[in-house]
Design a protein that fits this description.
The chain is an alpha/beta fold. It has 13 helices and twelve strands. The strands form three sheets. It has a seven-stranded mixed beta sheet with strand order 2-8-7-6-5-3-4, with helices on both faces. Bound molecules: pyridoxal-5'-phosphate. The site of pyridoxal-5'-phosphate has 14 residues, from α5.
Length: 376
């Protein structure tokens, strides 16, 4: 086995699924705030589009997908950010953003070159590290905490790391803390990219789940050497469909498209049709924001009333909360499991986060209220 991969811990969400199974087998009524996989139904107009597109004859879909899908994405991007994307040259569909985040370093990183670094946030989405390790990259963890307001700032990265970086990952709105990046730091990263020549990648899969100011997108600030990663999983309740989109620098998109032909990650046509409908509608996304906002209010206020510190957040459906004194993240998660509540220990999101735990706002508003009643 590849030695670099052997050193990786098991994928955290697999462990959560195992814990949940154990509880269910013991007959416990489980409130699952573990994996970020919401239970609100996918809107009927999206499901209908999928059903109608089931073909009589099944044939391979193409990597670039249908132009109508790309046009619908570009139209959404224009409505949402006021930025024009050329649907023919500047975006390609992906099977959700996870595989796209994973595969990108395989295309861009040459392990025999000095410039083979990948910079990513910790705490953060584990796939940024995993994809980098498979690609043979050098990794640099940008530690986010209260001292930097959970904001990545190029001024805090050593110059030699920026010089040797091939990819820098931003993820705002940020999983797991729900923070956004202020405008001056978007601009600072674009300046750093121009100076050091890395590819600046922005994972924006939570950009439509906001409760304060509307989150921004990287392409509002620059395009050359920049890629944004979008997803319908959270925006439209489509985690099971596997639908995302990468957009940005036309040369990079062309390169990625060419390489992806070998990855076997083309989007099936019924998913394309459902996705086209989803990108074309904003009303359902607004309704989802309202639902997650209600849940966030119940959980944040309830936890605070119980003396637990909750990080104030402006977006995502995650709540990042501090482990009470006397516990570690693992021991606290285990105590919550005893009362049927599943949360993610902070260390699932990288080293140094043992003082925190994450709730994904998956159970209904009533489920959130029940959880607060049971809380330990
Ligand atoms: C930061 C981040 N990026 C990407 C993903 C993957 O999302 P998708 O369902 O689009 O693959 C997730 C999922 O939780 C995430 O938190």
């Amino acid at each position: 086995m590849n030695e670099r991969i052997r050193a990786l811990k098991p994928y955290p969400m697999v462990e959560l699924a195992r814990r949940k199974r154990d509880l269910l087998e013991r007959g416990v009524d489980v409130l699952d705030f573990g994996t970020g996989d919401p239970v609100e139904p996918t809107p009927e107009f999206i499901r209908g589009a999928f059903r109608r597109a089931l073909p009589e004859v099944s044939q391979y879909p193409t990597i670039q997908g249908q132009s109508a899908l790309r046009a619908a994405f570009a139209a959404w991007y224009d409505r949402r950010f006021g930025v024009h994307i050329d649907p023919e040259r500047e975006c390609i569909p992906t099977r959700g953003s996870k595989e796209a985040v994973f595969h990108l370093p395989l295309v861009l990183v040459d392990p025999s070159e000095q410039k083979r670094g990948v910079v990513y946030p910790v705490p953060g989405y584990p796939v940024m590290e995993i994809g980098s390790l498979y690609a043979g990259a050098d990794t640099f963890e940008f530690k986010l905490d209260a001292s930097n307001d959970y904001c990545m700032d190029p001024a805090q990265v050593p110059t030699d790391v920026l010089r040797d970086a091939r990819i820098v990952w931003l993820n705002y709105p940020h999983n797991p803390t729900g923070q956004d990046l202020p405008e001056h730091l978007w601009r600072a990263w674009c300046d750093a990219r121009r100076e050091h020549g890395f590819v600046l990648c922005s994972d924006e899969c939570y950009v439509d789940l906001w409760f304060g100011d509307k989150p921004r997108s990287l392409l509002e600030f620059d395009r050359e050497g920049c890629l944004v990663f979008h997803s319908l999983s959270k925006r439209s309740g489509m985690t099971g469909y596997r639908s995302g989109m990468v957009a940005g620098d036309a040369e990079l998109i062309g390169l990625y498209q060419e390489s992806r032909a070998g990855f076997g990650q083309a989007m099936p046509v019924p998913t394309q049709e459902a996705s086209r409908e989803a990108w074309s509608d904003d009303v359902h996304a607004e309704e989802r924001r309202r639902v997650f906002g209600d849940k966030r209010a119940v959980i944040s206020e309830g936890l605070r009333a119980r003396g637990i510190e909750v990080l104030a957040a402006t977006s995502t459906f995650y709540v990042w909360a501090a482990v009470p004194e006397g516990d570690t993240d693992e021991s606290y998660a285990a105590r919550l499991l005893d009362v049927g509540i599943v949360v993610s220990p902070g260390s699932f999101f990288g080293p140094g986060n043992e003082g925190w735990f994450r709730l994904a706002l998956v159970p209904s508003v009533d489920g959130c209220k029940q959880a607060i009643e049971r809380w330990v």
